[in-house]
Amino acid sequence: MKYIKYALITLAGIASMTSCNDDEWKVGNPQMGVKTDLGSACFGDSLRFTINASDTEVPLSTLKAQLYFGEELVSEDVIRTKENGKDYEGAIYVPYLANIPDGRATLILTLQNINFTKNALEYEVMVTHPDYPSLTFVAEDGTEYVMEKQEKYVYSFNKRLPQELKGYIKTPEYGENGNSLTFGYANNAITVGGESPIPFSNANPGKYTVSFNTYTFEGSPFTKLMFNDTRFESTDDSHAMADMKLTQGQTIAPSGFPNYSDWWIDPDFFKKEDDGTLTFLPASGSYRVIANLQKQYFRVYLLNGNDPATLGSDGSGAVWVIGTNVGKPSVGSNEVGWTTENALCMAHLGGNRYQLTLVGGQTVSTDAINFKFFHQMGWGGEFGGDALTSTSDVVKVGTGEDGHDNGNLYLAEGRTLETNHVYVFTVDLSAGISSGVLSVTDAGEQTFEEKAVTVNGVRLTTSDNSFYEGTTALKQGDNLDINGLSSLDEYYADPDYFTFDEDSNSFKVNVIDGDYKIRINKAAKTISALMMWDNEEATFENGAAVWLMGWGVGSPSMDSQFGWNPGAAYCMAQIAPKVYQFTGEAGPENGSWTGVRFRTDYLSFKFFMQDGWGGEFSGDNSLALTENAANLISMPGNFELASGVTLEEGATYRITIDLSAGADSGTIDMVKI
Known about the structure:
single chain; mainly beta; nine-stranded antiparallel sheet; seven-stranded antiparallel sheet; 1% helix
């Protein structure tokens, strides 16, 4: 086997290069003394060499180093050799390319004098891949993640991450002559030195694995969310959006959506076929489709240009639903409320007829309803009792003079909607937008096959196999015994109530012993809890419970701020008798991620003795700020950020309320942990 091959190339002067006096012309004899071991290198190395260059007859010109992979010249370095007999140091870069196996490269060193006489030495260099102990992924925001070696060439990390994660990969220096390399993105591929960030993307935010192969340069995940040939673009960590023209009866093939078989499909807009494709049902037009990656459903509404469509004076366009006791895919986990941005767009059937399909106990409450129809996604034109009449003997339209708000739908006295029954609400504007007719049809019972989930042996209830809840006894320090859920390590559990134990693959209970209602959202992969007392929500009077309401705080993210909504307050985790805490990251109000439970730039909240208005704790009569808390928050009325304070985005903060000395002698502490 030949490792080093020597070649001497001597070029005599040619006719065109002769001087006037042939006796003065000298060919010369360039000589090299190689003082460096050139037998091996790693991809990405700087192959350094020291050469003694001399020619006793003719001044030297250049020393050239050329590296070949097969027949291809891949790297070159040229050094000026001005002095005879001197040692010259140089380095030639060994390029790092994808899918090049370990093997032998050819290094040619060529010394030339001023009369173009050359002497060349040829070496075979064994080139191998560096065996890095680990790599580092550097995200755009500067966060660094260590990519541990999993097997030969393969490195990865597994963390809770946003749906899109952009950045670059850097290597440590490897070996005596190794360089720190960066892998970026260019021409839709990961490359060494690529100037654009690598656009890793998962189907949804949460805990997932980012990996990279240093041999093939293949990375993952690169998930594309598609409807046929239309790609969804991420709008934040929980949503992706696409605007498209849809035709009634069109077949749509969704791809890239995680756990697509478990997604809730809106029956007003799509029919899911046996092969997983969707048939579009409403009238043809331009639509915006928003994929909610946490709650796993598609929200659809009609467009007029780039804006949500409105109702025209001729009855064409769109009709919107805003109010309480209604929500898709579940009224329990996604009630519309009076937040106009959450408005539901009714499906346009054509002929100025609009449809909303609801299921009792799932997307509409069975014992009460209170929503109405609007001309736009927001306040403005709306259907009052003078513009809309109902043909139903169950669902009525308020007039404002019958004890019900004008235009709000309500259930007739003594009537309820049936659980699991399908109700089709149709608004017919054929006679004009001032003479609308509402009809409500009971289409019968929807077949529902419940998928059981139990906690500590208690079977939780569900109406949609997505949102589960039930009450069970918890003991501080014990582990939750959960059955019916897979990949528990991917779930976000309220960090004050529970801590995930990797050894047992279960959640340890942090709160004091007692009865708690457990709420599990399989679509969003979240677990939360609240304290119960005698089958009712605990209060400070009976269970020493403390409740939190206000803005700038929410759970599991800023998408679910508590606000000032009685009945939607947060039950703080009682980690010791009459000691409570609330922990979370700080982040933006819009585009937050799971775990962001504090807003960086605005806080305004209070603590209450029950889930709603009534007894409350305040700085006026019961809570004193610790020194730590006073550096972050103030209490001019509500608890707010102290003057000039902004919370650090991505940092974790904890509020602790200690009432153990009495309800009138409490302290509130807030620290960055």
